[in-house]
Amino acid sequence: MLNLKYMDIAKYKKNHKTSYLADMYEKLDKEEIDLKALMETDDSMRELGQADLENIEVQKKEIMRQVEAIDTADKQEEEFPNELIMEIRAGAGGDEAALFAEELATMYRAYAANQGWQVSILDESKADVGGYKEFSMEVHGRDVYRRLMYETGVHRVQRVPETEKMGRVHTSTVSIAILPIRKHTDVEINPADIELEFSRAGGKGGQNVNKVETAVRLFHKPTGLAVRVTAERSQLKNREKAMMMLTAMLQEKKDSEEAAKFAANKKGQLGTGNRSEKIRTYNFPQDRITDHRIGESWHNIATILSGEKLGDIIETLANFKGEVAQVEIGDE
């Protein structure tokens, strides 16, 4: 809560969202000082000046109210950014895992479209039989991280592949990582720790994308993390996106390590938030999806994979977390 008697003008002048309000507040402050000085030297101005002082105070309070609203919105956006990167990687299961990875990518893209979010594919690595070995996309939109944050983890599929002649059910896995893009990060990257490679980008995009070395790959030597971006026709833009992606991955790694230290003492945690944790099973023979963190199941896999009913799962997870948070507050 802001102190209505005082505003840190210098602080709010640095924020482009509040700089004009800070200027207005500073101007009112000066008017108030000048008016009080005049009232002390001129008795005839006291009654008239008092009304002006009250008007100035009303204006200052309204400015403070607006600044507080912007402050609150900024803090919420820092905790739940409106921009993220989703990584989807085929795991155990070979071709079937790659096919399922593409189905999940299609599901999330459809869900994003239904939410009115903007999606930009950063990179895709196709498997020989179709599907994705790896896929990454950037997603922008209101509440994007708040809604997708619990999708990180291993998604397991159980079904009979089309190539299976004996009718046996196969189990395959796909890992998903949700990487929020934060405006402020405590990750520092030493340029000397990065290996930079350029190559031609495959797939759609015209002659420029396919014939010029626009694809960018960054390798972070201390951690072994690597990112590749082919989305843009410009090498420079791909490099910027790759650095943004690497920063988000390093931040996730740091956050996961910190969370692991305190996980045992954190009541009601909705899973570990680690990309290696098995969180969900898609059982096709039984037409059932189960989230193992909360023990809930949903039927009609086809409708969910179309993106139409994915919101039911996402809302249930969000509500579960909200209920846990209320219990924890009550126990404190």
UniProtKB/TrEMBL annotation:
Cellular component terms (Gene Ontology): cytoplasm
PROSITE patterns to which the protein is assigned, alphabetical: RF_PROK_I
Coiled-coil regions listed: 21-73
Keywords for the protein's UniProt record, in alphabetical order: Coiled coil, Methylation, Protein biosynthesis
Domain of life: Bacteria
Domain Prokaryotic-type class I peptide chain release factors: 200-216
InterPro entries, alphabetized: PCRF, Pep_chain_release_fac_I, Pep_chain_release_fac_I_sf, Prokaryotic/Mito_RF
GO molecular function terms attached to this record: translation release factor activity
Function: Peptide chain release factor 1 directs the termination of translation in response to the peptide chain termination codons UAG and UAA.
Family designation: Belongs to the prokaryotic/mitochondrial release factor family.
PANTHER family the UniProt entry points to: LD18447P
UniProt protein name: Peptide chain release factor 1
Species for this entry: Candidatus Taylorbacteria bacterium CG10_big_fil_rev_8_21_14_0_10_41_48
